[in-house]
Amino acid sequence: MANDGVHADTSWVRGIHNVKLGAMYEHTFLNESDPLGIVNPAYLDSLNDANGNPCMSGGTPECAPRCAMHESVSYDLTRGGSYYDFRGHTDVKELALYLEDQIKTGNWLFNVGMRGDLYNGLADASQPEPRLGGSTT
Fold first, then answer.
1. Residues 78-88: what's their mean pLDDT?
2. What is the mean pLDDT of residues 79-102?
3. Long-range contacts, 46-50 (Cβ 8 Å, 24+)
4. CA atoms of 22 and 20, how far apart (whole Å)
5. Which of 65, 77, 78, 94 could join 37 in a cystine, given CB atoms 3.0 to 4.6 angstroms apart?
6. Neighbour count for residue 76 (Cβ, 10 Å)
7. CA angle in degrees (0–180, nearest 5) for 32-69-88
8. What is the pLDDT of residues 2-55, one digit of tens each?
9. What's the CA angle centered on 6, arms 12 and 29, to 5 degrees?
10. Rounded distance between C-alpha atoms, residue 136 and residue 94, angstroms
11. CA-closest candidate to residue 93, choices 29, 27, 31
12. Cα gap 8→124, rounded to integer Å
C-alpha cells in the first residue's frame, strides 16, 4: 500500500478573530493479492444430503439434485480443490476542506466553523460537518 498526500493551512489574526483555512488531500493506492484455500476438513461439515449420505465421490463433489453443494467446495484443499486467487486494485481518494474562526472576547473563547469531507474509494461519500463550541477561563 502506498500513500500520497498534502496538507496546507493558513491563519489570519485580526482583533478578536483568529481565522484558519485549510485543506488536506490523501491518495492511497490499494493493491491486494490474496490466495484462499480451505485446509480444515471439518470446515464444510454440511457435505451430506438430507438423509446423511455423503455428497462426495472419491473426493469429487456429486452434482446430484439431492445434494445442495456449498460453493466453497471448489476451494477446499482437503477435497482436491484449488486456491481462490483474489487480485484487486483500487485508488482511495480523500479530500477535506475547513474554515474555522476562533473568537476571543473577555473570558470567553468561541469556535465557529465548517468542515467538508469527500471520500472516493471503496464507496463514495461526502459530508459537511459544522463546528460550534465555547469555553470560559
1. 82
2. 90
3. 46/70, 47/73
4. 7
5. 77
6. 22
7. 10
8. 689 999 999 999 999 999 999 999 999 988 888 888 777 666 655 666 676 666
9. 155
10. 35
11. 27
12. 24
**Residues 6 or more apart from 88 whose CB is under 8 A from it?**
30, 31, 32
**The whole model's pTM is what?**
0.59
With cell 493479492, the residue in question is 33
Looking at this protein, which amino acid is placed at residue 108? W
Beta-carbon contacts of residue 92 (< 8 Å; ≥ 6 apart): 26, 27, 28, 30, 119, 120, 121, 122
Helix segments in 1-137, DSSP class H: none
DSSP one-letter code for 122: S
In 3D space, the residue among 69, 94, 89, 80 whose CA is nearest the CA of residue 5 turns out to be 94
Q: Rounded to whole angstroms, how far apart are CA atoms 7 and 105?
A: 30
DSSP 72: G
CB atoms within 10 A of CB 40: 10
